[in-house]
Each structure stands twice: as C-alpha cells, then as structure tokens.
C-alpha cells in the first residue's frame, strides 16, 4: 500500500521542480499551471490536486529553500575548544550551503519573485526570521561564556555571514558568476573568521 504514496510524493516533487524551472525561465506571472503540468509530465488536474494556486506553489519553493538552509545540524558551542576552530567549522558549513547548486536555483526564483511581488513572500520571510540560526545561537553562547564582546547576537551573526555572501552568494545569484573554487572558499572563510575574532574575541 506504500507504492501509491511514493508515486504521489514523486509527482509533487516533479511539480515543484517544474515550477522552479518555469519561474526561473519566464517569471511568476508569465508561467501558467498548464506549462508547469507539461514540464512535470503530469496532468493539470494533478497539479491542482497538490497546489490549488501558483501562490501556494511559490510558498512551497520558499519552504524548500528554508528547509535546505536549515537541513545541516547545528554545531553547538564548546566551552573547552578554541573559538577559531569552532567558527571555521560553522562557516565551512554555511559556505557548503551557499555554494550548493540546488540552493542557488531556489534562491534565484525566490529573490526574483520577492522583488516583483514582495507580498507573496512576507509570511514565509516572517516565519524564517523567527527561527534562530545555528551561528546566532553559537555567538550567544560564547557571549554568555564571556569569550565574545556583548551585542545583539543576530546582528553579529548577519555581519559575519554577510562576508561570505558578498563573495559566495550575491555575485552568483544576481550576476551569474561562477561558484568560488576550494581555494577561494578557504580564503574567504579564514579571512572572515580572523577579522571577526580580531574585533569580537575577549580571550
């Protein structure tokens, strides 16, 4: 009895993948549910059974984007370990997500449509904003342990992550530049961590 459910799941995944491809190629408004159905190789009725509207399909894309960004297990703060090693591990994890081709594809779709119609993404963005990131939690724990300067952990986290995104996310999403190679990723991560610790570390 599990086979029909697996087929249903496969069809839903095919529909979402088709929507991402069509939204990327033609934009939200110019993409029809008929075209999504054809690209997914399913009937239009099947598409509507899973997603009654394009808005719900877009919400699914944003949800998948968040799921991908939160999929990696958070690395907990370790009071007995050097800060630099912990931060390097955290930023390597973040860099792996930012350079993932599937993540970048989803981000392009979400950003393009959010710029075009901000109201479509407001609810999902609000949900994402309520979720604490692993890096924010790590910074808060290090502050409580007296090893980092006080300050808003979320602001500090965004400041640090922004250095990665400047090189490994925004140029790729908005300008189509190639992903950083391993040496470039290493340089960005090491420099960001050293700059961060030079200002925020207390011990």
From TrEMBL:
Keyword Repressor attached: yes
Transcription regulation as UniProt keyword: yes
HTH tetR-type domain location: 9-69
Superkingdom, taxonomy of origin: Bacteria
DNA-binding region, residue range(s): 32-51
Keywords recorded for this protein, A-Z: DNA-binding, Repressor, Transcription, Transcription regulation
Signal peptide range: none
Pfam families in UniProt: TetR_C_7, TetR_N
Descriptive protein name: TetR/AcrR family transcriptional regulator
Species whose genome carries this gene: Janthinobacterium fluminis
């Amino acid at each position: 009895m599990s086979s029909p459910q697996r087929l249903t799941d496969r069809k839903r995944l095919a529909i979402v993948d088709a929507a991402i491809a069509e939204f990327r190629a033609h934009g939200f408004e110019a993409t029809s549910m008929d075209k999504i159905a054809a690209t997914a190789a399913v009937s239009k009725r099947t598409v509507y059974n899973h997603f009654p509207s394009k808005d719900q399909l877009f919400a699914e894309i944003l949800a998948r984007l968040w799921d991908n960004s939160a999929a990696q297990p958070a690395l907990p703060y370790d009071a007995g370990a050097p800060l630099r090693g912990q931060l390097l591990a955290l930023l390597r994890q973040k860099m792996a997500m930012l350079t993932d081709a599937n993540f970048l594809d989803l981000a392009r779709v979400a950003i393009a449509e959010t710029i075009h119609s901000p109201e479509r993404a407001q609810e999902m963005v609000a949900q994402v904003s309520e979720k604490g990131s692993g890096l924010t939690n790590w910074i808060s724990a290090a502050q409580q342990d007296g090893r980092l300067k006080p300050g808003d952990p979320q602001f500090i986290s965004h400041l640090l992550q922004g250095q990665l995104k400047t090189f490994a996310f925004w140029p790729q999403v908005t300008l189509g530049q190639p992903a950083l190679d391993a040496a470039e990723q290493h340089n960005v991560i090491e420099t960001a961590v050293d700059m961060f610790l030079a200002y925020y570390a207390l011990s």
